[in-house]
Amino acid sequence: MRVPSYINDLDQWLEQMKHGTRLDVAVRFAETDAYGHMNNRVPFVYFEDVRTLMLEETGYSLADDGIVVVADAQCNYIRQVYPRARLTVYAYPVQVGTASCDVHYAAFNEQEELMFTGRTSMVQIDRSGNAFPWNETYKNSLQNRFESVII
Q1: Hey, what's the signal peptide range on this chain (predicted)?
Q2: Which of 13, 63, 124, 137 is the most buried if burial means most Cβ atoms within 10 Å?
Q3: What is the spatial distance between Cα 47 and Cα 130, in angstroms, rounded to a whole number?
Q4: How many CA atoms lie less than 13 Å away from 8 in the CB half-sphere?
Q5: DSSP letter, residue 87
Q6: Under 8 Å between Cβ of 16 and 92
Q7: pLDDT digit string (tens) for 61-74?
Q8: How many CB atoms lie within 10 A of CB 65?
């Protein structure tokens, strides 16, 4: 398996990912393409779902007048995924900036095989589209989530 460039040590990264936010999904037939495997756009939907859970778990609130947008997204497909497959998708914040956060993702099948990985850069912006700093409480929550599990 070719390791994506955003992963330095695969074994350590995989262990770290399993401490992140978890989402269990079953691949629906509607999420497959004409070749009978999961469409390439679907992991990004799963990334959004688990990222939303992560934001909720870490206390994110729109009350601070900021909104979170994805500025960059990447997916690396390791194995083909077929309809009815049951996957566990993890999200983990790996680098927290003033108004941004890089999040990594890993998806495993029921046999604990890595199916795909991903990363996104999310940025909090204000209503006019300018970067808007995290409030300190939330930034600390994201950083502590990351720092408490460094392997």
Answers
A1: none
A2: 124
A3: 24
A4: 4
A5: E
A6: yes
A7: 766 678 999 999 99
A8: 9
Q: How confident is the model at residue 146 (pLDDT cuts 50, 70, 90)?
A: low
Q: Which residue in the block uniquely carries the two structure tokens 């990985």?
A: 117
**Residues 3-25: pLDDT tens digits?**
899 999 999 999 999 999 999 99
The whole-angstrom separation of Cα 120 and Cα 136 is 22
Answer whether 115's CB lies under 8 Å from 87's CB.
yes
What six digits make up the tokens of 52?
A: 């939303």
CA 76 to CA 48: how far, in whole Å?
A: 16
pLDDT in tens, 101-118: 999 999 999 999 999 999
| Residues 19, 16: Cα–Cα separation, whole Å | 6
